[in-house]
Fold this sequence. Notes:
Elements: E1 2-13, H1 16-27, E2 32-34, E3 37-42, E4 51-56, E5 63-70, H2 73-82, E6 86-91, E7 94-98, E8 104-109, H3 114-120, E9 122-124
Parallel strand pairs: 1-4, 5-8
Antiparallel strand pairs: 1-5, 1-9, 2-3, 3-4, 6-7, 7-8
Amino acid sequence: MHRSRLSTILIDTPDADAAAAFWSAALGVAARPVAGEEQFLSLAGALPGLSTAVQRLDEGEPRIHVDIETDDLDAETERLKALGATEVSRWLDCRTLRVPGGHIVCVIPLHSDPETFEAAANVWE
């Protein structure tokens, strides 16, 4: 048994500063750097219960992707692969998958506070 939930919406772009300025103004929240992770600009509070951020891409086309946080990376990755996703890469503890339809989804370890995770996580057998 493991648990997971949709946790994060990421706006991926090579021009993170311009994108963060736009989304900050559009959503009415401040864009702030994330300590120790210079590729991210947080848009905290944009979507209650979800982390929202702009992520600087070194290469590739602008896109939006989601993160699914879990208490078992291997089990969640295998569950999503059984649903038709294919694993594209791994970076640190992140598993990047391409899901049916062509979108990118990252499976990440727990990021949110335990109460938020407990309240929103699905339980998978």
